[in-house]
Design goal:
The protein has 155 residues and is an alpha/beta fold. The protein contains five helices and five strands, in the order βααβαβαββα. Bound molecules: ligand CA2. Ligand CA2 binds next to loops. It comes from Pontibacillus salicampi.
Amino acid sequence: MKEILLLNGPNLNLLGTREPSVYGTVTLQDIERQVQSVCDPHGVTVKAYQSNHEGALVDAIHEAMNTASGIIFNPGAYTHTSVALRDAIAGVGLPMIEVHISNVHKRESFRHTSLLAPVSFGQIVGLGSLGYSLAAQALLDHIYKEEKHGENTKN
Ligand code: CA2
């Protein structure tokens, strides 16, 4: 069975418990369920992982290389700082879509730059928890298109 990795970075375990005006009232567990319900009709399993530690996120990306077909990733504040996460995504070569709950472009200027954006095939920002469900749809579409392209270019 196909699997995707739903990866969340630092502080996103607090979703739904603090700062509802910025991050909403939906919990991370709710989001994990939402993403699984998008993937269920496609027979795709969602492996969900959250960590507050950069190295643990790098390890999860490496593990996904052998198990997953793609990654939905909200790297949290590491979005703006982490060369290590960018290198990990580039290194495993899996398709990755970046999600941000808040509209980072309406916030402080240090949130306007993503080191991960150049290694993602797309970004969804500012749509709250809905962004994760849309990201799941986009990732499945991307994976199926890649598979089709592979079949068509086989000789
Ligand atoms: O908008 C996003 O999804 C962010 O990735 C969230 C990060 C922030 O550093 C990025 O610039 C944008 C912060 C996650 C903090 O999550 C919390 C959730 C609830 C309560 C407090 C923090």
